[in-house]
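Ops channel
N.P.: pipeline sanity check, posting one input/output pair.
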């Protein structure tokens, strides 16, 4: 009976021991796996890209460019290493007749690359094959053409644009102050107006304004000042006018001889409504498909023309060369066209941008990397690093060669404005000194204070009172 009871107990203990051993084994295996993951280091991602300036360019055996800097910054934020290679077929990614993807998108779909870092346009079709991050750059469609193919006759106020608004305001203030100072000096100076009660003063306020305008136009308007104070002011104003006119005509000459950068063809509608300038884009690109799939009549007409004329370009560089060489407008991504304008100084981009879209990083469908990459891109945008990368790789080489005149600002002529201010002050001071000399002479004759005589003279000259002269003094005594 006891043997029968002992046997089940032993069997239960064996099973319990077996369960404990199994749990211990699982714990040991899990610990080993965790230890292996911890010692494995950062994940190494296979990255595919395409050689295109300035996103990825060869520098010896390595690559440099906007996308290379972006990849480096993102890897530091997410703590991963990467092995970057150029796409084998040199394409971005489209589907062939059988529906298979080529280019960088195809390599990501087939598992040959973990991510694609390049100027990949975020489209609905690509989103069905891969997952794409938040855009790291916004762009749109525009077109470039040679500057000498376009002309602009719509800027009626171009002559006013030679001076900045601040400059015109400064000239106006200088004109008003000078005219008022000439009027004041002609009233104050006894050399200009010896006997206010008998003579007429030719320098009224209206004549002062007219005289200043005449001096600025190099014509003059008599009569001219006779007093030293008035001649000082008018001489300084003539010098100021000469310098101002010289600067204006120099800017005008530069503007007339510079290449006109404004376009008579400013929009895609203008481009579609003319037949003098040929236009096209890269075949089977997202730009081409935009016009192909658009319901806008103007855009669809552009697609029909490109298809009929076969005015394609194999790549962006070929489109840039065509635009430089002849009668051709190349349609493409606005950021790429901005780079072309910065590199090739005889090209200009149309102001219109349509079909706004973004450039994104591509990863396989369902990849957990997309969320982290998007957060990293947003962080770089908020910190200003993406703007720094853009200014670094889109720096223009045409700044020094550009001959277009910029509006002249007052800071460029600080010296002549200062000289005019000193001249006006000196002129008014000399006029007061001339009046003071006459008042002192009268005061000595009449045995009065110089200040009272000078006050009476000023009152008489501005028609506020009667000056105390010897003749008037004798009449009052009588």
């Amino acid at each position: 009976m006891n043997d029968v009871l002992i046997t089940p107990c032993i069997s239960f203990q064996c099973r319990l021991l077996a369960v404990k051993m199994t749990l211990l084994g699982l714990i040991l295996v899990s610990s080993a796996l965790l230890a292996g993951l911890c010692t494995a280091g950062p994940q190494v991602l296979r990255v595919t890209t395409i050689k295109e300036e300035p996103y990825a360019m060869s520098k010896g055996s390595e690559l440099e460019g906007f996308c290379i800097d972006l990849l480096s910054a993102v890897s530091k934020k997410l703590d991963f290493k990467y092995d970057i290679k150029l796409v084998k077929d040199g394409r971005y990614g489209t589907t062939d007749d059988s529906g298979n993807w080529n280019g960088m998108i195809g390599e990501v779909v087939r598992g040959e690359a973990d991510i694609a870092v390049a100027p990949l346009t975020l489209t609905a079709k690509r989103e069905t094959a891969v997952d794409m991050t938040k855009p790291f750059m916004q762009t749109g469609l525009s077109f470039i053409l040679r500057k000498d193919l376009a002309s602009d006759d719509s800027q009626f106020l171009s002559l006013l644009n030679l001076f900045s608004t601040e400059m015109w305001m400064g000239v106006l203030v200088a004109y008003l102050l000078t005219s008022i100072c000439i009027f004041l000096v002609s009233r104050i100076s006894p050399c200009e107006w010896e006997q206010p009660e008998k003579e007429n003063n030719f320098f009224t306020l209206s004549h002062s304004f007219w005289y200043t305008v005449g001096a600025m136009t190099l014509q003059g308007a008599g009569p001219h000042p006779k007093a030293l104070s008035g001649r000082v002011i008018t001489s300084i104003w003539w010098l100021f006018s000469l310098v101002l006119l010289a600067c204006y005509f120099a800017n005008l000459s530069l503007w007339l001889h510079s290449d006109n950068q404004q376009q008579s063809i400013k929009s895609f509608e203008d481009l579609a409504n003319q037949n003098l300038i040929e236009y096209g884009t890269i075949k089977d690109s997202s730009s081409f498909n935009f016009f192909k799939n658009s319901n806008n009549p103007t855009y669809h007409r552009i697609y029909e023309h490109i298809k009929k004329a076969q005015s394609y370009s194999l790549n962006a560089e070929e489109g840039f060369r065509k635009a430089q060489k002849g009668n051709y407008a190349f349609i493409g991504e606005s950021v790429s066209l901005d780079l072309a304008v910065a590199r090739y100084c005889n090209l200009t981009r149309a102001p219109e941008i349509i079909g706004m879209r973004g450039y994104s990083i591509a990863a396989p469908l369902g990849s957990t990397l997309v969320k982290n990459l998007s957060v990293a891109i947003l962080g770089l945008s908020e910190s200003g690093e993406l703007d720094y990368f853009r200014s670094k790789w889109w720096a223009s080489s045409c700044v020094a060669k550009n001959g277009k005149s910029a509006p002249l600002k007052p800071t460029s002529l600080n010296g002549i404005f200062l000289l005019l201010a000193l001249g006006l002050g000196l002129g008014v001071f000399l006029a007061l000194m001339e009046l003071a000399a006459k008042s002192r002479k009268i005061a000595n004759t009449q045995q009065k204070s110089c200040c009272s005589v000078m006050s009476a003279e000023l009152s008489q000259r501005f028609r506020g009172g009667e000056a105390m002269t010897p003749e008037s003094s004798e009449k009052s005594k009588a």
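N.P.: looks fine end to end. Residues 154 and 336 are 28 Å apart (CA to CA).
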